Structure formats: C-alpha cells, structure tokens
C-alpha cells in the first residue's frame, strides 16, 4: 500500500529540459500532470524524514523505583533550602512544610483562592509567575506553545469539593490529588524542591500511602520507605562537629599528643643546619683547591710562553753518492759438445 504523499505515479524528466529534476506526475489533459510530486517542497508531497509509527514513546520503569522517586521528591519539598534554591519565594511563609485546614477543599471561587494565598503569604510566589510570563524563543511559537512562565506553588488535597475550580485560573498554581501523586508536578524537570501546600487530610494520608521508618505501607503491598544514605540526619551536629586534625601535618595537634615533639623538631632543624654548614665548608675547600690548581696551571703556561725560542744550528747534509750505471754484458752461448 502506498504511503501518504506517494499516491501517484511520478518520475523525474531528467536533465536537458531547463526544469528541476523533481519527480513529476505523468500524463496530460489536466493541471496535475507535469506538477512536482513526492518531495517535501511539493504540494501534496510527503514530509521530510517522517516520524515513524514504531517510535518508543513510553519507557518502562520499575514500580519500586517510581515510588522511590516520588518519596524523595516529597521529602525534598519539606527542606526550605532546596525549595529556595528552586526560586520559590517562601521567606514570609509562617511554617514549613505548610499544612492548611481542609476548608480550602470547599472553595469554588478564584476570589476565595486569592484571599487564601495572600493570608498564608504565598502570593509572592504567584506574583513571580506573573512577572515571568513571556514568549518562547524558537520554533515552539509556531507549535501551540507560544508563552512560557515559571512554576508556582503546588496544592495537594485529599478530596475535591470544588478546590480545582477555585485554583485552576491562577497562573503557575498546580493541583494534585494525594491518591494520584504525579512526579512531574512534584519535581518539574527532574529537579526536586517544589513549594507544596498540603491540606490536613492529604498530609495525614502520607503515612498510610508510603509508611513510616518503622511501619510498612498500608495501601501499597510490601512497600517500605528506603533507608537514608546519611547515617546521622542531625545536620547541625555534622556541621558543628569537632574536626579531627592529622598530627603529622598539624603542629598544634601533635603538641597536644606529645609536648616533647617541639624539642625533637628543633634538634632536627639544628642538626640539619650544621650539616649544611659542613657541606658548605667542604665545598668551599674543594673550590679553593680547584682555583689554586687552575692558577698554578696558568702560571706554568705563562712561564713557558715567556721563554725565548733557541734556534738549533743547521747541519749540512752529505751529498748522496751516485751509483754507476750497470753495463750490459753480452753473454755468448757456447755450443754444446756432441
């Protein structure tokens, strides 16, 4: 079966016709014949590199791993330092984590929601969202996501008695049922530290949902909270602890352990100094001896150069005796006697 954009018999005309080499519809007698086809720049053509139908949109994650992530995000939402680092304005919030009455679950008007947020001093975080509203940079403006804004507070409720209608029109404010915890709302972008406002019923249900350090969960089968990586959770005790110093590197720590260490150290320094002096004396002596030898050498060379050169008397060489030339003697052959 032909795909979308390929439902025609088109073939390129090739070169030599002063037209583009794009495939063109066959035939004649209609406007469609001779028009370009198949290409992403053609009317009725297919898109370039179309998305595949077999793309893996979803990823399987272990249930225990997902629960671990949600529990970690909930725990991080109760640490003011992490929440502040995310940019939430919680300086005037009366307590943290912020747990409010269940009456807000009955609100159904935006006016009531705004008054509530002003009373608990969380309106500054909403104003931050208003100021951050802007147009997106890039092609997303053409793809139904023109505007972007920052995140405001997240309200977690136990029962919806109209609370969604009250808060849904305030920008940046998200709502979530405690029975359907969404990790993308608790930790947007994978970064923990969301400013969460809990209703009393939702906050009390957390123990039943995820259990405590001593009891397992009642609503999730065989689930226990993960043990913390920190053996001692008292941060003040860790930060203000007595620092252990290495006595081999720290002199004061060594003197506390061994007061005589100062004397031994001083003696070692003095002996090292004496050794240096001796080595310097030896080196000076060797230098003096070397300089004396060099000086003596120079004196000898100078004395040799100062002596006048005595010319030796030339001895006359005796003339060579000329040997007489050997005369050729003719040898007569004597005939042999018969």
From TrEMBL:
Similarity-based family: Belongs to the universal ribosomal protein uL4 family.
Q: Name one GO molecular function term.
A: structural constituent of ribosome
Q: Which domain of life is it from?
A: Eukaryota
* Compositionally biased tracts (Basic residues): 306-320
Q: Where is the composition biased (Basic and acidic residues)?
A: 329-338
Q: Name one GO cellular component term.
A: ribosome
Region Disordered: which residues?
1-37, 302-338
The residue ranges flagged as biased composition, category Polar residues, are 1-12
Instruction: Tell me the ranges covered by the Large ribosomal subunit protein uL4 C-terminal domain, including all copies.
Output: 238-271
Q: Kindly name one Pfam family recorded for this protein.
A: Ribosomal_L4
Arranged from A to Z, the UniProt key words for this protein are: Ribonucleoprotein, Ribosomal protein
Gene Ontology BP term (one): translation
From which lineage does this chain's organism come? Answer: Eukaryota, Metazoa, Ecdysozoa, Arthropoda, Hexapoda
Q: What is this protein called?
A: Large ribosomal subunit protein uL4
PROSITE patterns listed in its UniProt record: RIBOSOMAL_L1E
Keyword Ribonucleoprotein included in the entry's annotation: yes
